[in-house]
Design a protein that fits this description.
Elements lengths: L6 H13 L3 H13 L6 H23 L1 H20 L14 H24 L5 H13 L7 H12 L4 H4 L6 H18 L1 H4 L1 H17 L5 E2 L2 E2 L2 H28 L18
Antiparallel strand pairs: 1-2
Helix pairs in contact: 1-3, 1-12, 2-3, 3-4, 4-5, 5-6, 5-7, 6-9, 9-11, 9-12, 11-12
Length: 274
C-alpha cells in the first residue's frame, strides 16, 4: 500500500482540511457557480468542504479502530445538526447576540469536537494519554476561525454572553485560535519535546499570515469572484498540516525513546505509524 494513502495519513489529511477556514473559498466557489447560472450559495457549498474532510477522517479512523470510526460518524452527525442551527453565516458580530437555537447549535459544535477528539485519542494511543489528550483538545479549539467551526462557535458563545466582539471575533487577534495552539504545543512538548511542539506555532503562523502575503498580489477577480481565495485556502491547509506534523513527530519521538505504545485490540497493523 502506498504510504500516501495509509489510514493514519488519510485521517490526518482530513483533519487538516477540517481545521482550515473554508468560508472565503466557499463564497468564491458559490459566486463562480452563480455566474455560470447555477443556484449555489455559501450555505450549500461550505458543507461540501466539511463533507470531504469528514469522509477522509471517518475512512481513516474506521480502518484504524472500528470504535473510533463509529465515534467519528456520531461526531459529524452532531456537527451537521449544529451547522443547520448555526451556519457559518451566523457566526459574525452582526448576527449577535444569538438566540436559543443558535446557542444550541454552537454547543453541538463543541460536543462534536469533543467526540471527534476522543475518537482520535482512541485511534492514536499514546504512552502519555494526558499529554496527547491535551494536544488534541488544543487543536480542537483552533479548528476553523472566528467565522466558522469550533473557534467560531466559541467566539459566538462568548460574545452572546456579553464579551467584547473585538476580542473574540477579530481575526487579527484570534485569541481562541492562539490559545488552542498554545494548549496543543504544551501537550506535544510533554509527549515529544520541543522538536514536536515548535511545529504548532509555525503552522499557526502559516495559517494566519501566509494568506496576508498572498493579498499583496492584489485581487484575482473573475466573474465577480476573487480567485485568490483558492491558494489562500491551500496555504491554510498546508499550515494545518505542519501542526499535525507536530503530532506525528511527537509520537515518533516517544517511540524512539522506548516509551512504547499502549496496545489496543481494535488497532490495525497500518495504524502504528503515519
Amino acid at each position: 500500500m502506498s504510504r500516501v494513502f495509509t489510514p493514519p495519513r488519510t485521517a490526518l489529511g482530513g483533519t487538516a482540511i477540517l481545521m482550515a477556514c473554508a468560508c472565503g473559498t466557499a463564497t468564491t466557489t458559490a459566486t463562480l457557480a452563480a455566474s455560470a447560472g447555477l443556484g449555489a450559495t455559501n450555505r450549500i457549498v461550505h458543507p461540501i468542504f466539511i463533507a470531504v474532510a469528514a469522509g477522509l477522517i471517518i475512512y481513516g479512523l474506521w480502518r484504524m479502530a472500528r470504535t473510533s470510526g463509529y465515534l467519528a460518524v456520531s461526531a459529524f452527525g452532531l456537527l451537521g445538526v449544529g451547522a443547520a442551527l448555526t451556519p457559518p453565516m451566523a457566526m459574525s458580530s452582526g448576527a449577535m447576540p444569538w438566540g436559543t437555537l443558535q446557542v444550541a447549535g454552537a454547543l453541538l459544535y463543541l460536543g462534536a469536537a469533543a467526540l471527534l477528539g476522543y475518537a482520535f485519542w482512541r485511534a492514536f494511543p499514546s504512552p502519555k494519554p494526558a499529554a496527547s489528550g491535551t494536544a488534541i483538545g488544543g487543536v480542537a479549539l483552533a479548528t476553523g476561525c472566528t467565522c466558522c467551526m469550533v473557534t467560531g462557535a466559541l467566539a459566538g458563545l462568548f460574545v452572546t454572553g456579553g464579551a467584547s466582539s473585538q476580542i473574540f471575533q477579530t481575526n487579527s487577534i484570534a485569541l481562541i485560535f492562539w490559545t488552542g495552539l498554545a494548549v496543543a504545543a504544551a501537550g506535544l512538548f510533554q509527549l515529544g519535546g520541543w522538536r514536536a511542539a515548535v511545529l504548532v506555532p509555525v503552522g499557526g503562523l502559516i495559517i494566519k499570515y501566509a494568506p496576508q502575503l498572498l493579498a499583496l498580489t492584489g485581487d484575482w477577480m473573475v466573474g465577480g469572484a476573487n480567485l485568490r481565495a483558492f491558494p489562500s485556502y491551500a496555504v491554510q491547509i498546508a499550515g494545518a498540516g505542519v501542526i499535525l506534523l507536530g503530532f506525528v513527530t511527537a509520537y515518533r519521538i516517544a517511540l524512539l525513546r522506548g516509551d512504547g505504545t499502549p496496545p489496543s485490540s481494535e488497532r490495525r497493523p497500518e495504524a502504528v505509524g503515519a
